[in-house]
Amino acid sequence: MKTLLEVHDLKMHFPLKSEKWFSKEKPVLKAVDGVSFSVRKGETLGLVGESGCGKSTTGRAILKLLESTAGQIIFKGEDITHYKGEKLRKLRRQMQLIFQDPYASLNPRKTIASIITEPMKIFGIPKEERRKKLDQLLDVVGLNASHKQRYPHEFSGGQRQRIGIARSLALEPELVICDEPVSALDVSIQAQVINLMEDLQQEFDLTYIFIAHDLSVVHHISDRVAVMYLGELVEIGEANEVYQQPQHPYTQALLSAVPEATPDREKERILLKGDLPSPQNPPAGCKFHTRCPLAEEICRVKKPELKRVSEDGQMAACHFAKEVVAAAPV
Amino acid sequence: MTTPLLEVRNLRTHFFTKAGVVKAVDGVDFQISPGETLGIVGESGSGKSITAMSILGLIPSPPGKIVDGEILFKGENLLHKKEKEMRKIRGKEIAMVFQDPMTSLNPVFTVEKQMVETIMTHESLTKKQARARAVELLQLVGIPDPSQRLRTYPHEFSGGMRQRVMIAMAISCNPSLLIADEPTTALDVTIQAQILELFKQMQKELNMATIMITHDLGVVAEVCDEVMVMYAGKPAEFTNAKEIFTNGKHPYTTGLLHSIPKITPEKQKLKAIAGQPPDLRHLPQGCSFAPRCSKAMERCLTVDPEMRQVGENHQVRCLLYEDEASKKAVTT
Known about the structure:
Chain A: This is Dipeptide ABC transporter ATP-binding protein. Chain A: InterPro entries: AAA+_ATPase (IPR003593), ABC_transp_ATP-bind (IPR050319), ABC_transporter-like_ATP-bd (IPR003439), ABC_transporter-like_CS (IPR017871), Oligopep_ABC_C (IPR013563), P-loop_NTPase (IPR027417). Chain A: GO terms for molecular function: ATP binding. Chain A: Belongs to the ABC transporter superfamily. The complex is a heterodimer. By secondary structure, chain A is α/β, with parallel strands linked by helices. Chain A has a domain at 107-171. Helices cover 30% and strands 21% of the residues of chain A. The mean pLDDT of chain A is 88. Chain B is of the alpha/beta class. Chain B has twelve helices and twelve strands. In chain B, helix 4 crosses helix 5 and helix 5 (127-140) crosses helix 7 (159-170). The longest helix of chain B has 18 residues, at 189-206. Chain B is globular, with a radius of gyration of 21 Å. The interface between A and B is large, with 42 and 45 residues.
């Protein structure tokens, strides 16, 4: 499969106000600190982690809604890291975003028709075509064409999320970044929207980066999963591999913490001590060592690199994960 | 049989709004014994929080009104209590933990001030004794260095720690009933696991009854003994927490279970429940779930079913289980 997007050593630092007056040291918050991964055409990459781990920031940096501090973003073989102006505008057509909150992401003063057609208007698509496309979009996301002239407040949460999805598909993008698209929805509606997103992926050959904190939803929709902790990637691999044989102790703890809707739970729960450390002042060495049940001296001093831990390319950043040397290409 | 600690009979809480009467809770029955944990599960608007608020006498009136029913707590009907009497019960006998720990703690007072105030309102202790009790409680809920942390403000705590403070305050007067409204929804998974573990430990140590309101069936599997599934203000199914997963009967219950993605190697398409939750002002005639139900029959659109006993400690509100005859009709 072709690689659609590559991210190399992406860093996103936010400058903070200095605590001391006239101090030369400028504190920074390292929201994303050296993340590398690639996304293949037509697949879904799940990005999971707890709040504040930098998953949304990563998504926004890829879309170039944020100017990244360092690193490289390569989209369809082109380095887009420093795209600006008209070039960036054209690029945006191929990358879209679905937001978390279906209540905040739709303009309450516009009708559904004008919300969905606005991206097309911006890119100068003629009126006749816009109208045709609108009907088609409403149909694919399962909304009634007679609802065109209604306003967002007349719709329920699930329907609004469908409107948001229709809008993001209006320009026929290749890459859609979904930032917690179902976490604000009720369980029964959540399943509808997940099914819809899967159908749309098939139909339009879309590539998703699916950002969410719900581990079972991410497993369900993703082909590959990347786990983040405090701005760094701790594990990445095929969804089944990561979930069945997690190699990083954080992934193991995270997965064991998911409350499952089954009466007899077999899994032993790994309870992590303490809270997430502040990203403003992350621990030295391995950032996870303060909560890690396996931590030893080396973890406090040396930062582990992502290394290959399975034949199929699963990678984990832990000193204690067993490294597997990749088989030589035949 | 032990006498139940709390018995709710035919509770109906309606809201009288300009746009019409909203039947938020419409005929809820359940009981809970000391030391037991009851889960109330449902989606937004199913009436689970309003049920809890009704028990505590916190329904804003107007527009809300409890139009029918009885809430028997230790044999006394709470609906006949005066506000002054309710105030003595709330916080002491029945305590509550809310979803969002930041909005339920006062940001301008230290944790010490808030905890001591609660304890002194309900128990005749001196300030010094109350403080000692607060330290003890914070220790119990697993806050390190409690006497130091007492002097800090809520914003200095993380989300999980704040929820621990809330739980400490709730159990400060040894309540016999604790109502927890989505206590872990705002928390991250690893922190949620810690708090659920804390709830389990509390139940063991303090022998209090708990009502756990949640939308997450995973949470039910973790902590509850019994569970009531609610839909559009009415209970759909009531049984013990094991049975609901292995032998859930109501089409809404099974629909919910199928809607949750499972972490298994082979992926299947989710079986979603079609349609939208109903508007509580214009409930359909007959069973309120019928328009979304995959097993709906002609009669479901006209007849509103009653709660039926279908097994030991298992009740379902569905025409499919009304009698043997209709059961056969389904299987053929």
